[in-house]
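Quarterly update from the structural biology core.
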Amino acid sequence: MSEDKKKNIYDEAVEVARRTMVLFFMVDTSGSMEGSKIGTLNSAIEDVIPEIRQISSENADAQIKITVLEFSEGAKWLTPSPMDVAGYSWNYLNADGITDFGAACKTLNEKLSRDAFMGDVAGSFAPAIFLLSDGEPTDDYKKPLADLWQNNWFKKAIKAAVAIGDDANLAVLKEFTGSSESVLTVHSPEALRKMIRFVSVTASQIGSKSSSVGKKEVDEAASKQEEFIKQIESADIDDSDLKW
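Predicted structure, tokenized:
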């Protein structure tokens, strides 16, 4: 083959598009989160973004995108669509109001579809959904959460919840994640910081991995959640610092 033909072949080569893995942050910004809780949460997520960015840049199969849903009096997206972590910067959240968890479940459900946040042209891995809360729902969350569990994207997602302090309703968080093993409790700023890093990094690493050839999608999702839980069980997060 002539050198000119070789050059033409190389010139026409295109990079194969990577699939997307969306990391959802669901953040309780009710009034009880005011002060060190929301401050620690903000700085911890800001600090972990570069690590997630590195995981994405080194992954030949998946591009990680981030989206943020905050809930207090109602729920709203702080990202109009999932954003590539390569160019993403965390915007600090403020805390005020009540805890409309049902509204958060409904709002999440609306975007977990191929017509919304899961419609990447190259395809999407099951998402990772990370809930952080220190309280108890102040609205009727039962039906919105039941509807959310009918969503196939939610069923397949890696799900984790962090209960911040002793007032978080662990039973509700378990209803959300589907297992008590996926609910983690922290009582100090340093433990919260470490847990945010651990969950964000671990979920990003596991969620953006391709499954074995021929593995069914539903089995892939189940195995990723199981792997995530195993990582949780082996985690060593010291929660002996000063309490809130």
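The chain has a mean pLDDT of 88.
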